[in-house]
């Protein structure tokens, strides 16, 4: 079954079928039994929750009438009867149900998890930073390969020494050219140009966005080494631009080539200033960028931090669409730019998924996971057996997954404790069982035990959090119950009503015969109706139709001619129509075979044919209506049979409390 289709059906069954009510207070934590069906209790809070959620209007009027409440209570009882029947039929034990419900759970639980709130915070922080661009210079001090702690300290001391030189008046860009291990420093002297959120590694970005203009950072540790960062400028993010360009290349090692390129770009620029010049022609003739020269030099959209700094600066300096830049030099050659389009930073809603994807691909995802584990450990009373874990690590880190169990057994460590969580102790044997169930090995660095132990801890904590939500989070409990019961309701209705209504042809015919009075034609007439859309074509239509009556050959000829010669001139329809309530036919004289009428300021030409009296529809003519009505009949019959099958007891006091809760 399609996940989204079922979801839509569940929501429509649970919510649309209930009368929309005004917003109400959240359900109380107390679990009072509103009613029992077949002895199975149904809580008051469930009714209040569903009716509250069912409200989709902005009507702020308070309360719900007694009549509305009683109507919704009846609908709720009918709904719970069907859920009970589905349970009796064992639909909740089917593999289809279990898979469907598990799929829903994985989606429903996400907003309630610790991880979600942390991810949301990172998303908002990243988007907030994207409102600004920062220009910074840096000096990178890298660690030597396989650096020891002593090596790291030497690098840190060097970083602090150079930082001191800058504080004493040294220029960070000159010192970057001298000391930086960043290969690009030879060209840019440590000037990184402008960048925005999610364009630098996280520690670097965090430090840069915490500095004011001119301020110098302490050594910042990243995967690349230590950085000394100085912010040069901060500006509002200009958004994105789209430019086209002309490129003239040269070999930077050849002074003559560069001079020739400079003269050529100057001549091109002068040519562009002429009013008769067509930009696309100039690009095609002179640009040496093979990727864009045949399409007007057009480049993709880009924002700050996506192009080399000098190209980017020139592009964002252009303000008017069609404005052309003076020639500029980059490492690729000489360029002339033309501004094609500009747009501001997109809204958070538009960028949310892109930001989420980028966060999950960089180190922030690891940081979020570490924070999640730390919070879970504190919340659920995680206590590690340090001594036992250390011994297991020393014994098992050198093993492989395939030899893990045999080494564990040989060393008699199966019952060695790992940690206690919510009063339960987990052992090395539990870790071994977990490893057998997992098909994909962890990619983290470290020994076999360390890698698998960390994953086992994270998985166990995640399961504990999910179980805790199911046991203690009332809102999540209600949501789970809503979808569980909704899937069961959908399955029962599909089995007993919808599919049966479509496939039971004998039942359809029997229902049709018993309810023939529902399927009656009113008085009808054959008609060809031509709505004139182009008044200049009115006379042509008159000539073709005037003096004629309803005639299939004439209709076919008219439709073929106008579709071939004037497809926008007319709108036509032909057939047998009930004329009493028809917009056009209710205005015509049924005794004239050809006539013209004006309806709602439009001209219609009408050909009439045979008239038919009111009569019963044939089954084939009514099949769609019969199926719809038959399904409604099956639904009503099912509900009535379930009311007879299952005893229903309503607690009048709790019922009154539910009514009052909806009127708070």
Any chance you could write out the topology, listing elements then pairs?
Blueprint: H1 3-16, E1 33-37, E2 40-43, H2 44-54, H3 66-88, H4 95-108, H5 114-129, E3 132-141, H6 149-167, H7 172-179, H8 185-188, E4 191-195, H9 202-210, E5 220-222, E6 225-236, E7 240-248, H10 255-272, H11 279-286, E8 302-303, H12 309-317, E9 328-330, E10 333-343, H13 348-361, H14 363-379, E11 383-384, H15 386-396, H16 401-410, E12 417-421, E13 424-427, H17 428-437, H18 448-472, H19 474-503, H20 505-514, E14 520-521, E15 524-532, H21 538-545, H22 552-565, E16 570-578, E17 594-599, E18 602-612, E19 615-616, H23 619-645, E20 648-650, H24 652-661
Antiparallel strand pairs: 1-2, 1-20, 3-4, 3-6, 5-6, 7-8, 7-10, 9-10, 11-12, 12-13, 14-19, 15-16, 15-18, 17-18
Helix pairs in contact: 1-19, 2-24, 3-19, 3-23, 4-19, 5-13, 5-14, 16-17, 18-19, 19-23, 20-23
Question: How would you describe what is shown here?
Answer:
This protein is 51% helix and 18% strand. It is α+β, with helices and mostly antiparallel strands and 664 residues long. Among the domains are: 106 residues, Roll (Chitinase A, domain 3); 105 residues, Chitinase A, domain 3 (Roll); 92 residues, no CATH class; 97 residues, Chitinase A, domain 3 (Roll), CATH 3.10.50. A 4-stranded antiparallel β-sheet has the order 4-3-6-5, with helices on both faces. Strands 8-7-10-9 form a 4-stranded antiparallel β-sheet, with helices on both faces. It has a 4-stranded antiparallel β-sheet with strand order 16-15-18-17, covered by helices on one side. The two termini are 40 Å apart.
């Amino acid at each position: 079954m399609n996940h989204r289709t079922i979801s839509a059906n569940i929501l429509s069954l649970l919510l649309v079928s209930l009368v929309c009510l005004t917003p109400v207070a959240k359900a109380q934590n107390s679990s009072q039994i509103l009613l029992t069906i077949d002895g199975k209790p149904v809580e008051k809070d469930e009714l209040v929750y569903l009716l509250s959620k069912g409200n989709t209007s902005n009507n702020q009027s308070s309360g719900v009438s007694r009549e509305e409440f009683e109507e919704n209570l009846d609908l709720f009882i009918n709904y719970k009867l069907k859920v009970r029947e589905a349970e009796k039929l064992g639909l909740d034990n089917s593999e289809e149900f279990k898979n469907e419900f598990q799929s829903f759970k994985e989606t429903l639980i996400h907003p309630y998890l610790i991880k979600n709130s942390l991810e949301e915070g990172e998303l908002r922080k990243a988007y907030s930073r994207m409102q600004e661009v920062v220009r910074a210079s840096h000096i990178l001090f890298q660690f030597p390969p396989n650096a020891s702690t002593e090596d790291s300290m030497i690098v840190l001391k060097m970083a602090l020494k150079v930082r001191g030189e800058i504080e004493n008046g040294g220029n960070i860009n000159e010192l970057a050219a001298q000391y930086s291990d960043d290969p690009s420093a030879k060209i840019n002297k440590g000037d990184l140009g402008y960048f925005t959120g999610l364009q630098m590694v996280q520690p670097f970005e965090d430090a840069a966005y915490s500095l004011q203009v001119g301020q110098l950072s302490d050594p910042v540790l990243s995967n690349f080494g230590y950085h000394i960062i100085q912010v040069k400028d901060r500006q509002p993010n200009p958004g994105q631009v789209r430019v086209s360009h002309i490129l003239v290349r040269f070999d930077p090692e050849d002074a003559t080539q560069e001079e020739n390129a400079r003269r050529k770009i100057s001549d091109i620029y002068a040519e562009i200033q002429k009013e008769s010049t067509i930009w696309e022609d100039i690009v095609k003739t002179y640009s040496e960028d093979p990727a864009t020269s045949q399409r007007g030099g057009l480049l993709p959209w880009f924002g700050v931090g996506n192009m080399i700094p000098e190209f980017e600066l020139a592009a964002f300096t252009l303000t008017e669409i069609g404005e052309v830049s003076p020639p500029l030099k980059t490492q690729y050659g000489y360029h002339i730019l033309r501004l094609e389009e500009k747009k501001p930073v997109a809204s958070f809603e538009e960028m949310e998924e892109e930001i989420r994807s980028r966060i999950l691909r960089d180190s922030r995802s690891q940081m979020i996971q570490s924070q999640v584990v730390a919070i879970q450990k504190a919340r659920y009373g995680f206590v590690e057996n340090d001594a036992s874990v250390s011994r297991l690590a020393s014994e098992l880190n050198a093993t492989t997954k395939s030899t893990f169990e045999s080494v564990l057994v040989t060393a008699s460590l199966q019952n060695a404790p790992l940690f206690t969580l919510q009063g339960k102790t987990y052992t090395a044997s539990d870790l071994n069982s977990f490893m057998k169930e997992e098909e994909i090995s962890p990619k983290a660095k470290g020994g076999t035990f360390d890698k698998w132990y960390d994953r086992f801890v994270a998985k166990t904590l995640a399961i504990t959090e999910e179980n805790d939500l199911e046991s203690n989070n009332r809102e999540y409990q209600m949501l789970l119950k809503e979808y569980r019961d909704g899937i069961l309701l959908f399955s029962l209705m599909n089995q007993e009503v919808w599919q049966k209504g479509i496939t039971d042809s004998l039942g359809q015919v029997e229902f049709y015969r018993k309810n023939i009075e529902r399927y009656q034609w009113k008085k009808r007439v054959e008609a060809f109706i031509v709505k004139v859309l182009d008044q200049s074509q009115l006379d042509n239509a008159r000539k073709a139709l005037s003096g004629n009556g309803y005639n299939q050959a004439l209709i076919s000829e008219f439709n073929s001619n106008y579709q071939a010669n004037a497809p926008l001139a007319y709108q036509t329809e032909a057939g047998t129509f009930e004329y009493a309530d028809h917009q056009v036919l209710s205005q015509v004289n049924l005794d004239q075979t050809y006539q013209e009428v004006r309806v709602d300021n439009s001209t219609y030409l009408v050909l009439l044919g045979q008239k038919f009296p009111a009569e019963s529809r044939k089954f084939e003519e009514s099949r769609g209506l019969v199926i719809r009505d038959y399904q409604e009949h099956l639904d009503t019959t099912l509900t009535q049979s379930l009311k007879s099958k299952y005893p229903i007891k309503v607690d009048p006091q709790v019922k009154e409390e539910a009514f009052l809760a909806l009127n708070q």
